[in-house]
Design a protein that fits this description.
Oligomer: single chain
Pathway: Polyol metabolism; myo-inositol degradation into acetyl-CoA; acetyl-CoA from myo-inositol: step 1/7
Strand content: 15-25%
Number of strands: 15
Catalytic activity: 1D-chiro-inositol + NAD(+) = scyllo-inosine + NADH + H(+); myo-inositol + NAD(+) = scyllo-inosose + NADH + H(+)
Domain Gfo/Idh/MocA-like oxidoreductase N-terminal: 3-125
Function: Involved in the oxidation of myo-inositol (MI) and D-chiro-inositol (DCI) to 2-keto-myo-inositol (2KMI or 2-inosose) and 1-keto-D-chiro-inositol (1KDCI), respectively.
Pfam families: GFO_IDH_MocA, GFO_IDH_MocA_C
Order of helices and strands: EHEHEHEHEHEHEHEEEEEEEHHHE
CATH superfamily of the largest domain: Dihydrodipicolinate Reductase, domain 2
Bound molecules: nicotinamide-adenine-dinucleotide, 1,2,3,4,5,6-hexahydroxy-cyclohexane
């Protein structure tokens, strides 16, 4: 069976997912699209030669579209409304991060899913599908390094856009570490503190960059996460887990090495789309396959909620300079067991 998919939001990642479904993946077909910028929706239909109807908004796409599932790839603040409408219509929904911009919004989505009685929502935390992170998780789960004690990581972007603000370092950028690290450790966060080193001259005047976030888990693991979104030299994701018996580290993306003019080196990628290209392919293929089986297995609305609660505490810690507590509601039964990523 071919899954008929509607896409809500045809910007950068919406187009990228349409490209992969149309040219790389199997079992899915784009049959409906919408964007508040109608020209963008029309352009993507033309660019990929889609046999798809362009709808004026998410409501009409969900009501009238010939679809089995939707991808929500609009701006973050628009996600909650589209996801709730998709659940109401009984459609499976893949939602890019953030699931909602507030913890209350994520709660409303969980409540709607619980009322529906079955998982319909997968959140776009694609790092769980990255083979490097999957290997780290395997090593941790198999106690290769004994108990994990500390994690050191860095999330570096070459440059931030003109509308990027200091809190987006958390809600837009660190949110990937927030998700993947609690998944790696199988542990929840307890507290957070944020510090600011000297500011780079490449950052816009209104923002703090870089930032250092210190997270502590319930199990006592200390995580230092550097966020540096104007590092200039590349898109660079680092993660090192220090355990009782050894250390495991995220591999560098594979690349040829070059010896030239008395130098030896490898290229560093510049774009998130390239760095995680295989992970995005796997997560969307997993969504298509899981919907086909009638049982989602990727990141859940509960994971979206954990990320939102943790991000709220991080933003509070940015402002207060103090250590802030992170407290979750009780985990609903619908989300028992750990959602997986795939190698
Ligand atoms: N998983 C990842 O690594 C990753 C990477 C990039 C972006 N994202 C997330 O994906 C989302 C989109 O990011 P982007 O980079 O594609 O942004 P973008 O600005 O390029 O595209 C967003 C599109 O959504 C449209 N839109 C806004 N509100 C809408 C609504 N109510 N209905 C329909 N369309 C609407 C806009 O017109 C725009 O075309 C963001 O939430 C972002 O955080 C995730
Ligand atoms: O939306 C993007 C995307 O999520 C990238 O993975 C992240 O590195 C960027 O900081 C963020 O702005």
């Amino acid at each position: 069976m071919t899954l008929k998919i509607g896409v809500i939001g045809t910007g950068a990642i919406g187009r990228d997912h349409i490209r992969r479904i149309t040219s790389n993946l199997s079992g899915g077909r784009i049959t409906a699209v919408t964007d508040v910028n109608e020209a963008a929706a029309n352009a993507v239909v033309e660019q990929y030669g889609l046999d798809a109807v362009v709808y004026p908004d998410d409501q009409s796409l969900l009501a009238e579209g010939d679809i089995d599932a939707v991808l929500v790839t609009s701006w973050g603040p628009a996600h909650e409304q589209s996801v709730l409408a998709a659940i109401e219509a009984g459609k499976y929904v893949f939602c890019e991060k953030p699931l909602a911009t507030t913890a209350e919004g994520c709660r409303r989505i969980m409540d709607a899913e619980i009322k529906h009685g079955k998982r319909l929502v997968q959140v776009g935390f694609m790092r769980r599908y990255d083979s490097g992170y999957v290997q780290l998780k395997q090593a941790i789960d198999e106690h290769v390094i004994g108990e994990p004690l500390m994690i050191r990581c860095a999330h570096r972007n070459p440059e931030s856009g003109p509308n990027y603000t200091s809190d987006m370092a958390i809600t837009d950028t660190l949110i990937h570490e927030i998700d993947v690290l609690h998944w790696l450790l199988g542990d929840d966060y307890k507290s957070v503190q944020v510090s600011y080193p000297r500011k780079t001259r490449h950052a816009l005047s209104h923002m703090r960059d870089p930032q250092v976030v210190l997270l502590e888990t319930n199990g006592g693991v200390l995580i230092t996460a550097e966020i540096f979104v104007n590092c200039r030299y590349g898109y660079d994701i680092q993660c090192e887990v220090i355990g009782e018996d050894g250390i495991v580290k995220l591999p560098e993306p594979s690349s040829i090495s070059l010896r030239k003019e008395a130098m030896f080196g490898t290229r560093i990628l510049m774009d998130w789309k390239d760095r995680f290209i295989e992970a995005y392919d796997r997560e969307i293929q997993d969504f298509i396959d899981s919907v086909g089986r009638g049982e989602l297995q990727g990141p859940t609305a509960w994971d979206g909620y954990i990320a939102a609660v943790t991000a709220d505490a991080c933003v509070k810690a940015q402002e207060s300079g103090q250590r802030e507590e992170i407290e979750l509601d009780e985990k609903p039964a619908l989300y028992e067991g750990q959602a997986v990523g795939q190698a």
